[in-house]
Write a structure and sequence with these properties.
By secondary structure, this protein is α/β, with parallel strands linked by helices. It has helices at residues 14-29, 46-56, 65-70, 86-95, 110-123, 137-147, 175-178, 183-186, 190-206, 334-351, 359-378, and strands at residues 3-10, 34-42, 60-62, 76-79, 99-102, 127-129, 154-162, 209-217, 222-224, 231-233, 239-246, 251-257, 266-273, 276-281, 287-292, 309-313, 382-383.
Length: 385
């Protein structure tokens, strides 16, 4: 017998769909005690949320998130709404004793994230931030490779996250579709939206970032607001690059932009150490590239005529998460990363061991993002505290 876990989903956009798909599929592939039930979804526009509920099979819908949280038949609040709504929803959900899953970035700024983190800890409720890229099997394999000592002492970490969808000057800002371009709703541009992923992955693989120095650019200075029709200044960063020094002494470079013509979701990282290297590209997600220089057990150098990059096809049952999916050689995709993340969350409810990344981890990423933006304003190195 499985235990029902009643879900209250807030938001019906990109993330609302990705999360809802995960709730519907997770028990078909992962054996878990808890079984998500699509109890209710919520958004302000009645016609939109009604259609969303009918499409995904939610039993009911609300147009006020406060009513959703107040319901006794809701166990989990999933925050898939724009960034400027996260804090208020999370605080109320924590007071109501609900489990909370929240999209990234956790908040608009560090002060909000600290308040949210304190609230869930005081309430003692299970919580997770949807940094879904940790659950790409190849990225999880990279983590395994690093933890096994196969990269050795780290020297360099470099990450890029490139897109091209905002290059045109006639793209508006704001509204349901383009709120990520509105600073009042998103908080920041590529730093919070894209580099938050890169930072979370980097610290997961290579440990805490100690200090950063950054530069940002907004290429289109004014855009028409989708809701008001008025031309307004653009307050978000279109591009960001920063240097980082990790606490382990390694050096890092990070770059993100929405102005890389031809790049749709080009999310890469490479970690170089004294024993080896790993490289990953989200646009080729079923592969992890690994360079073996020295044996981690003996420390002996591999014979030079046998060295070279290995392109590991991460589809075997011994690879992370893949024993739940298909036969070797059959790949999984973007939507599966949310299913894998949800499976880990459900497992944490069984084991009583907090899942990662939790709100505290989300707060950590928020601190790095804020330090990056502060450095871009001052032109100085900023310490991460």
């Amino acid at each position: 017998m499985s235990t029902p876990l009643n879900i209250g989903m807030i938001g019906y956009g990109f993330m609302g769909r990705a999360h809802s798909n995960a709730y519907r599929q997770v028990n078909q592939f992962f054996q878990r005690e808890y079984r998500p039930v699509l109890k209710a979804c919520c958004a302000r526009k009645k016609d939109k949320i009604k259609a969303f509920a009918e499409n995904w099979g939610y039993e009911s819908y609300e147009t006020d998130w406060r009513n959703l949280i107040a319901r006794d038949d809701i166990d989990v609040i999933d925050v898939g709404s724009p960034n400027n709504t996260h804090k208020e929803i999370v605080l109320e959900a924590a007071r109501a004793g609900k489990m909370i899953l929240c999209e990234k970035p956790l908040a608009m700024n560090v002060a909000e994230a600290e308040e949210m983190c304190a609230a869930v800890e005081k309430a003692g409720v299970a919580n997770m931030v949807w940094f879904n890229y940790r659950r790409v099997p190849a990225i999880s394999l990279a983590k395994q490779v690093v933890d096994e000592g196969r990269v050795g002492k780290p020297f360099h970490y470099r990450a890029t996250y490139l897109q091209d969808w905002t290059i045109a000057t006639d793209v508006p800002q704001g509204g349901a579709a383009l709120w990520r371009l509105d600073a009042a709703v998103a908080g920041s541009g590529v730093t919070g939206d894209l580099l938050a992923h890169s930072i979370d992955t980097a610290e997961w693989l290579n440990g805490p970032i100690a200090r950063v120095t950054a530069a940002t650019e907004t290429f289109v200075k004014e855009r028409t607001h989708a809701e008001t029709g008025k031309v307004q200044p653009v307050g978000i960063d279109d591009a960001c690059m920063f240097l980082a020094v990790f606490e382990n002494g390694s050096m890092g470079t990070f770059e993100s932009t929405r102005y890389a013509r031809g790049r749709k979701n080009y999310n890469t990282f490479e970690l170089n150490g004294d024993a080896g290297s790993v490289f990953f590209d989200l646009e080729d997600p079923q592969y992890l590239q690994y360079f073996k220089y020295a044996d981690p057990a003996s420390g002996q150098k591999i014979e030079s005529h046998l060295t070279g990059w290995q392109k590991i096809h991460v589809t075997n049952p011994e690879h992370p998460y893949m024993d739940a999916w298909w036969v070797p050689g059959c790949t999984i995709g973007y939507e599966h990363t949310f299913i894998n993340a949800l499976a880990d969350f459900l497992e944490s409810l069984e084991t009583k061991k907090p899942v990662q990344p939790d709100f505290k981890s989300g707060l950590r990423t928020q601190k790095v993002c804020e330090a990056v933006l502060d450095s871009a304003k001052t032109g100085k190195w900023v310490e991460i505290k």
